[in-house]
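Hey, weird one. I pasted the Methyltransferase-like protein 9 sequence into the form twice and got a warning about non-standard characters only the second time. First submission, copied straight from the form history:
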Amino acid sequence: MLPRSTLQHPPEQVALVPQSTGGRGEWYVCNREKLCESLQAVFVQSHLDQGTQIFLNNSIEKSGWLFIQLYHSFVSSVFSLFMSRTSINGLLGRGSMFVFSPDQFQRLLKINPDWKTHRLLDLGAGDGEVTKIMSPHFEEIYATELSETMIWQLQKKKYRVLGINEWQNTGFQYDVISCLNLLDRCDQPLTLLKDIRSVLEPTRGRVILALVLPFHPYVENVGLMGPSLAQPDAEALGAASRLQDDSRHTARMSNATNTG
């Protein structure tokens, strides 16, 4: 496994965050020479577009709300005794994930703004903010989530929440399945991938995976003694070992693949 510093480098054309963000950010590109040829051919480089800038601006603005931040800090300290960080974020309505903007999503899947298909399944959807980016392109939207407070957030957005042992047994298939920053947080990642394949529409189905590398699996667990990080089982550790030994997985990236 190559260290991240060898995969990302300050590019010749660095997109600096505009003055509205205080000039504190840079846009990185992947060093494609460190990828194998098969990945070089399909890699899609994202750029700092309007949707990304809006997310950054909102995040910076919220970070300056002193009293709200103090309140969140207090609530987090108290509730962390018996709730996971994910559930606390769901309760407070914070911690939204950003993976791609609407334009980046369309570019990744090579679709136009008017493209529409039948079913989307977003696994580990969190508060549904990324689901909302994808949702205009689907007639039916399904999601899964373990955290009760995040389920509450998803239901407020009118998404159909399926149980973690339910989505594989609905009797129908999905046109797009997204699994974003989830494989390293579940105890059976290989089983998850097999289940995804089994319910994906076989002729036109697409899977969108987002994964942070190096692969370090951990699982949130809330028990009688409060929240903790459970030890990953043998399957998760085996997946980590495979990723470390596979030179094809040498970029921190999100990539859409057609499995048909």
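That's the output from the first submission. The warning seems to come from a hidden character in my clipboard, not from the data itself. The chain is about 35% helix and 20% strand.
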